[in-house]
Design goal:
- The protein is α+β, with helices and mostly antiparallel strands.
- Helix content is 21%, strand content 16%.
Amino acid sequence: MRKLALFVGGTSAAVAMAVLGTGHATAEAPDVTGEPYGKAVSILKSLGYKATFGGAIGNDLPQSQCVVLEQQPQGASMRLRLDCDLKPGQTQPPAPNTHSLVPPGGSIPKPGASGAPAPAPAPGRPTPGAGTVTVTPVPIG
């Protein structure tokens, strides 16, 4: 009887260790579909998964702002497919880490703003800060 009790106790301990020792390999991965790619990657990384890019539909949005369409587990990594199309009524967000060099209202003071009239630009030269300047190359030779 004593041997049977030891056998049952040892067997249950071995089963418990096998179940606890499997880690996230058998645990269900978090569902990140519908999340922006940047947020989905950080969620998966915090839980020990490696996110990999699995392709995208469209190209209207920066990759970090694309929405995760589907995820496919591949061992300790997760393959994410993205939707980068703008939805109806959605406007394209500004690109990350871009800054305007021209302050709001323009870089040339308006007449009467500081008491003096604005200087006239030289003829044939673009006004600084007035927008995009197009340069047309001229072939030589």
